[in-house]
Each structure stands twice: as structure tokens, then as C-alpha cells.
Amino acid sequence: MELQQLVNQTKQWISEQPVEQIYIAVAVLFITFAFFLILSFLRTSKSNTIVIAGLSGSGKTILFYQLRDGSPHQGTVTSMEPNDDTFVLHSDLSEEKQKKRAVPVHLIDVPGHPRLKPKLDDYLPQAAGLVFTVDAQDFLYNYQAAAEYLYDILTKAIMVKKKIPVLILCNKTDKVTAHSKEFIKKQLEKEIDKLRASRNAISTADVTNEVVLGTPGTLFTFSQCQNKVTEAEASGLTGNISQVEQFIKENIRR
Amino acid sequence: MLEQLLIFTRGGLVLWSSCRALGNALKGSPIDALIRSCLLEERSADSSFSHESYTLKWAFHNELGLVFVAVYQRILHLLYVDDLLSAVRREFSEIYDPKRINYDDFDEMFRQLQKEAEARAEEMKKLKQSGRVPPVHAKKGGAGQRTLTGIQGNGAKKGTGGGAAKDDSDGDIGNGRLLSNGVDNGMKGTNKSRVASKGKENGAPDTGAFDVNKLKMRSKTGKKGDGEKKLAPTKGEPKKAVKKNRVWDDKPVEESKLDFTDEKGDERMEREVVVVRGESMMDKEEVISSESEGEEEDEVEGAKPEAKKKGWFSSMFKSIAGNSSLEKANLQPALKALKDRLMTKNVAEEIAEKLCESVATSLEGKKLGSFTRVSSTVQTAMEEALLRILTPKRSIDILRDVHAAKEQGRPYVVVFVGVNGVGKSTNLAKVAYWLLQHDVSVMLAACDTFRSGAVEQLRTHARRLQIPIFEKGYEKDPAIVAKEAIQEAARNKSDVVLVDTAGRMQDNEPLMRALSKLINLNNPDLVLFVGEALVGNDAVDQLSKFNQKLADLSTVATARLIDGILLTKFDTIDDKVGAALSMVYISGAPVMFVGCGQSYTDLKKLNVKSIVKTLLK
Predict the structure, then answer these.
(1) Contact B495, B406 (CB under 8 A)
(2) Nearest to B14 among A76, A197, A203 (CB)
(3) Tens-place pLDDT, residues B346-375
(4) What ipTM was reported for this prediction?
């Protein structure tokens, strides 16, 4: 009963106002709504998030701290949780001229332990770029696992849809026995080619390989991917990370 | 002496290390091993972890996300480590600052804390020594002796030396007699003290990890009759007895072997060919329905009104007020409810207990977010933990491994093991069917030479699937049959050999020995344990005993353990899917296949997310 009365009262009040005012009010509401909608679209299309992924032991956490603080501190152990921070790249901080122009980067280091793999899916939607680290020194021991992880990442629907660029980073190049990036690239391409053959009809427990990589008939190369895949070399411990920084700068808020 | 004490964040950065100069000079990176095989496996409620020659103990500070790990030599038994860890945690959390990376000033504090802890431990020891508590002292004496005999020296002599050194006030225990007599009494004394000290420490966790020292000691005490009963309850028969045929009635034993192997094969049966019956369910995607979840929760909520109401109000109040940190007492009711829920879903009791403890250790001290109840925090933590356990830690892509073996020019060998009646032969045929659909040539090996009809069963499957089968009839040695089968497969270029073995109970010593002989001789690529989803608490026993026997009786340094699990009869359980969790937790092996029916297409992969959802419904 009271509700009825309230409704009647509001109806009366509305009819008392002049018609133009109502139209204007509605139009203003509509414009502000549309404005916010457009803003939200614009904002998500260029995020400043970079995700670092790779096998366990390939040097992601060291790279994270190098980028942030310029030194690997006292070393790291296997990560149990992701490292997530927004900061200005350390190398940008040192140059006085660039300080004002420096853009903060949101960097996420996702653990590489197989049991924590599902965590990567939580961060990929907001990623503007992915750095895939590979241990260039112990490459031949675990290149199959690395290729499988890379294959899983490249065939995720969100990677293909948003065309997230991938940088294959050959880490630990300061060691004498590290392989070159061309060798690593070729090995990975060969392995992924084999994986394509054995995986094309299987859906694994959590990750459905929804996309067929590259062109089926020919040998797989990274240039066949829809998203841009490049390679670089770096050394987390000594701080030789200029190529990574370049990749980061290219991909965030141009 | 403490080798190292390390403080690091959960994200992996080392904040402080007690031995700075050498960095990580420990052999074999035990800390990484700890994280990989213990903390990430939800065993963080264990008291300690042993890796090679080190023992590790740890403590968490969940609020700040820090882990404190102490490493020391395994042969030492430092009593002050727990004490030291909690003191370090307390002090460090006061000076911790998320922005700060360098904590050199903590060195002084640590040295002080260490001295204090050592002093306290010394005092405790003296108190116990002077008090009239001989059994406790015997434990220490026994522990000392145990470690000394653990080193494979002249056990008796060192035992006597040890006994003499600690022989202050306990003449009534066998230690006193060690001085006068030779080897025999030395062994006796160590037996008794060893029994007492066994209860003291959980050196090797009974989750399947194998402690070489214990095996060597056990084999020593095997010579002594009286020690054996106390120490080895699992050992059934003495080693020398040969397995005799069981005689149930008073009939005269027929010595002639009953071997009805049909030499020519049964030609009268029709050649039934299996037309492709459609895609094996392995290749179909599973759609997870998330709608039914909401209804189930309401039902559960309605079912327990009284207990919930009381807890609900007070926790609601606290959650709105926010900022209450989780204490063990708060967690207990929520954890108990979760544990009961898990157990109604057929998770083994021991596993549910361990899981709840592990979740408790990871949540203690954490601040509750505002507007979240204790039960929901516990639920999310448990969900994450279950997801972590069930996610395989190595690749389960068999086809890739098959192709890799093919390139190396050898067949890929899979051995199916399990207890009686779980469905090994049926599921072997299903796996063969699935492999055939992916253009892989398969060969079956009938190494179940005990059960009547086993060879015929496989022969029928082989005929229907049109694949070769290697059989030698009954009453033959399965290890030799398997070896010959693999050679035959290499000759006729089959890609995969599926070896069927006889079902055996995990307590049956001779049969387990035969199984490990088969595995050692043939070194298969994949040892698949077939377990049924209907099993309850016995799953824990089965898997741990299988793993232990395979490890004990292995002839090489790195024993072949169970590599994967095949879960069968999944269609018979509606939502009591807990057996999957128990098996994966206890063995660490991933579930590679799930059998959900009795026809060839009824084989699928485990959908981790839906299992977790079903377990926590």
C-alpha cells in the first residue's frame, strides 16, 4: 500500500516538471554513461602489464629483481607465489633526463613449477606482452618441457585473440656453455612441430589446445604464429638485460 | 651445528642467509627440493623433511608471506631448531619491511638468538639427565647408537663404544651389558633402544619416501629373531620359505602342474572385428556445468542450521569489524567441517587430516580480509591446495613419449600393476584402442600367467582390436615373458607394448618381489598403477606399500616407482571422487587415465577443476 502511494507521488512529481528538463536530464545521463564506456574500452586496450613465464629454474625471479632494483640481491629459491609489482624500470631511474618521461611498468613473475601452471591463466588477460625465459645453459636437458610449455602458451585462446607478443628470452648467457639464441629457436621450432602432430586431437585436463599452430603441412616456424614472436639474449645475474627492457618499452602504452 | 638458516619470501627472493660467505654451499640444493617435494605438495604440516644428508625444518609467517628454513646434518639431532625458528620468526617480523631487501643487521640478532636457543636446549638436556627418567635417556642413547650403526661400520664395536660413553646411570638397560659381551648382545641392546627411539622422530615420512639407512638396519635385525617381530610388522613370511600351493581341504596334493594352455589357439571362435565405435572419450572435451553448484550449497547450508548459526553471527561480526588474524582455534571448526565433507566424498581419513593440517599451517597468522568469513577463507585455501595437488607435476602426454621412443628405435613399454580385480585387463584394452585411434601400433603381452582365463581374455581383446599378442601360456615366469615380448615387439616394429600383470595384494611378499623383478629386468617406460575409484582408506595402504616394495627391492640406485595412476570404475561412484585425491597425494603420481565404463571408448582424462568442485560441494 505504501509502495503504491510512493509510486503515485513520484509520478505526480515527474508530470509536474517541464518536459524539456526531463529530456535534458536523460540525455546527460546517457552521455556520461557512453563516455565512461568508451573510457573503459580505451583503458583495457593498452595495459602496461608484462608477464614473465618459463620453466622452473630459468631465471624469472632474478630477472624481475634486476628490472626492478638493478641487482639480484642475495639469490633466489623456487618461487611458490607470483611476484607482482608496478615500478619504473631501474635503468630508467638512473638517467636524470628520462626520469620525467619514465612510465611505470606492471611486471608479473609467474612461478614455473608445473603444479602452479594454472596461475598463468589468471594474469594473461591483462598482459600486453609475455617474456618466456629459457635456460640457455641447461637447454638440452629440458628443452622438451620448455617446448611443451611454450606450445601450451601459444595455443591459449586468449593469446591468439589478443595477439600478445612473445619474447623468447635465452637467459644465463653469461655462462660459457650457454647455447645461442638461433640454436634454441631452431630446437624449439622442431619440438613444437612434433607436438603439433601428437596433440592435434587431444584435449588435456585443463588446457584445451583450441588453436592449431601455424600451417599444418609445413615445418613449424615462429613466423607462422599470429602473434609476434621474437628472440633475445640476456643474463639475469650480470644485469645484461637491455633487450628485455627494449621489448618492455615497445609494448606498453606506446 | 646448524648448517644454514634461510629466510625467503614466498615469491622466491632470499632475504637473509646465515652463511653469507659461501652463499648456497649446501650440496644438492636441499631448499629447492624442500619446496618442490614438500611445501608445494601440501605436506607443510610435517615436522621435518630429509634430503640426502640434510634435515630441514621450517616455519611460516603467513601474514608477511615469509618462510624460515633451517638446514642441518641429518645425523645430528638438534633439539633447539624449532625453538630457534620461532624466535627468529618473531624477531624478524618486527624488522621486516616489504620495501627493504638488505637485512645485514640481522646477523647480530641471529647469533644472539642461536646462543640463547642452544643454551636453553642444553639446560633441558641436563634437567632430563639429572631427573629419574631413564627411558628418555635410553632414547637419546639409542638415537646416538642408531646413528652410529647407521654408518655401515662394524656395528657392534661402535655400539659398544657408544654405549660406554653414555652409560651414566642406566645399568638396568641392556647398554650396560654391551661392554662385556660381543656382537650378539650389542645387537640386542641396539634393538631395544632402537624400538624406543623409533617413536621419537618422524625421520622418513611414511608417505613413500624411502630411507636407505632404515632398510640397512632392518636387514641387519632380520638375523635376530626377537627384534624382528617388533620392528617389522609388515614382513609376512621369513625369507627362505618358498611359496607353496595353498591346500584348503584334506585332499591329497596333486604334484602335476595343471596347465591347460591351448597350444594352437581357439580357431572356432568367430573373428570378431571391432568396427570403429566412435571416438574414445579421451579425445572429447568436457564441459563443466557451473549451474548446479549454487543449489547444492543452499542444501548443505540448510542441513546444518544450529551449529552454523552460532558461528555465523560471531564470525559475521568479526568479519565486518575486519582485521582479526586467523588463529588455530578459529580455523579448527571450519577445518573440521571441511575434513568431514572430504571424508564423505570418500577421501582417506589420513589424507584428509594431513591436508587440513597443511592448510592450517598456511593460513595461521593471516589477516582476514574485510567482509570475508573464516569458512570462506578456509574454503578458498583448500580449493587452491586441491588444485595444486591434482595438477600433474610432469607431462602426461603419452603420445609425445611414444613418438620420442619411436625415434630412438625402441618400443614404448607400459606395465599395468594393481591389486586383484581392479580392471587391469579391461582398461589395458581401452588404452590399446585409444592408441590405435592415434595411429600407433600396439602389441599386448600376457604376463598374467597365474589366473585362469587371463591369457584367453587378452587373446579375445587382441582379436577384436586386430593387434598382435605375445603369450606363453600359464605357469611361466612373467619377467621372462615380458622380456621376450619386448624383444618380439622390437623385431616386428611395434610402437607400444602393453604388459598385463596378475593382480596381487600389497602385503604379499613373494608376489611383490616377482613384480619388482619384472620391472627391474625390463625397465619399462611407464609403470601404471591401476586403482579403482571405489576403494576407500585402503588406497593409501596399497599405493604406499607398492611404492615401498618397488623401492626396497630395486637393483639400481634410482628405483623405478609408480609413474602414473589409472583410475577405474569411475562411473560407479556418483560424486564420491575422493579416491583420486588420496592416490595422487600419497604417491605424487598424476592420474593419466580414468576408466568410466566397460566398453572400449570409456576412457577419459581427469578433469581437475571438476573434481575439485565435486570434492568441495
Answers:
(1) yes
(2) A76
(3) 888 888 888 888 888 888 877 777 777 778
(4) 0.72
